[in-house]
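Email to the structure team, subject: WYL domain-containing protein model.

Hi all, the expression group asked for a predicted structure before they design truncation constructs. Nothing fancy, just the tokens so they can compare against earlier work. One-line instruction: predict WYL domain-containing protein, return tokens.
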Amino acid sequence: MPVNRNALIRFRTIDTCLRNRYRRWTLEDLVDACSEALYEYEGIDKGVSRRTVQMDIQLMRSDKLGYNAPIVVLEKKFYTYEDPEYSITNSPLTDDDLGRLTEAVEILRQFKGFSHSQDLGGMVQRLENKIRSAKTNQAPVIDFEKNDNLKGLEHIDTLYRAILNKCAVDLTYQSFKAREASVFHFHAYYLKEYRNRWFVLGVRKRGEPLLNLALDRIIAIQDCKVNYVTPANFNLHDHFQHVIGVSVSPGLPTERVLLKFDRQTLPYVQTKPLHHSQEIVESSTGEPLVSLQVQLNFELERELLGYGDRVQVLEPARLKRRIREILTNALDSYIYEFNTKSLQNNLQRFIHRGSSTLHHIYRRKEVDKIRNTLYLYLKAAGEGTDTYAIRHVLKEIPALKQMLFTPNLLEVLKKINPNLFLTKAIFFDKSPDANWYVTWHQDITINVAEKITTEGFTGWTRKNDVHGVTPPEEILKDTVTLRIHLDDTDETNGALQILPGSHHKKLSDDEIKFLTQNTVPQCCDVPAGGVHVMRPLLLHASSKATQGKHRRVIHLEFNSTTLPNGLTWAEKYDLWKNA
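Reply from the structure team: attached below.
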């Protein structure tokens, strides 16, 4: 009984539904699911009738297709499989199927000795293995590499036929970097598999560069009326000749890659070369080295990283730097792992002393990205711009929000108070060109959007269109300050000095003088990637740096108080809404 592609889509959709034991499926539910599947895969928008789905269920129950599906109806309404482990994809091959496959294997076996059929060996073994297992009901004796959860395989046949028939298609595609899918005409030329992942090569339109698209990122394929653009002077073998993997940069020259493997690994690389250009050469000391002539790409990096400490890149220098950087960042993730167990103890210290230093909130890679973003902003701002301070830094550089509010930092804030929101953000850099001394003080000013005279709010100021005011003490006590350190900070580059326990109230000038003259201060050494958590009423100061190195800090203030009388925070940012 011939079965067309639409029927197969319906059978597989019904099968997927009935295998889902967490939902009860009525006939109407199955009709809707089949209609959606046909629209997604074939662009058919007229839906499916109840009678069609009922006939499909009868066929699946019968032995006409070899399914004999144990479909039952519960409560005269809900369809399901009586056997929860059943699926039509697990159906055994019929005797007729086995006979046809056996004939095919015998035909293929005749070609195995010919040079132009070198790839048939693995194919024949796969088929023989499957047939023997089905005939004898025994476990297979060969286990081929496979990925049962691989996505996109359903598109192979459609693209294969589009290539053979020279037909353009409309692709709905969303790369991992794209926020949403895009639809475009596509002229497919070749299908390629690499490490169990499938790709299609082609162009959007004539004259544009060749695209290499992953099938698992294709959402839908539909026919289109655009005339097919044939490939001009394109050869698949030449295209991939100088790369490992599928990432090709047209026009990029190849480079000599020199690798040193340890004695245990070298024989494996010799018997399974990394690339057809691989040669074994001798170093100046007579050690065997592996030489490749390839383009540098992502797959080459991944291949080398897979060997861990069993390989060393000797050249080119930029590949060596790249591998070293990746391994350093990887090691950083393990050595300086954020410890949630110690977080509670540190926050208890913050409650009692008004200050605590949290280590390894940011990894080195994240700190480098933040510093580079700030550098590019200041560089673009040009001469005349203050390079040692950026007020309202998150408004000036919105990209920093995603970099700063990482899961680690949000975890810290949630532990302190899940109702906190951002109220102030400043960047400053104590450098050789901007080296200042800060006397002992408490931070007692908040920024608001406009001046509204309100009881308890005093000392109004205005700077850069932002109003500053001293609020009631309760609001200051609710404030939490996080100082994100982008450089290692100690007393040589102006680290903060604090008086622990001085954060419980707003102090007078005489009280500040008495405490600072009679208390031994504590220096807050904070490594890059660490965060100093403090209360703004904590007495603090900082000295001038004695060494010519930077002390870059992003100063963030948080609060959970709604201001009275129509006053609003100048820089309010909801952390959880935007996380």
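The two ends are 55 Å apart (CA to CA). The longest helix spans residues 317-335. Ping us if the truncation boundaries need rechecking.
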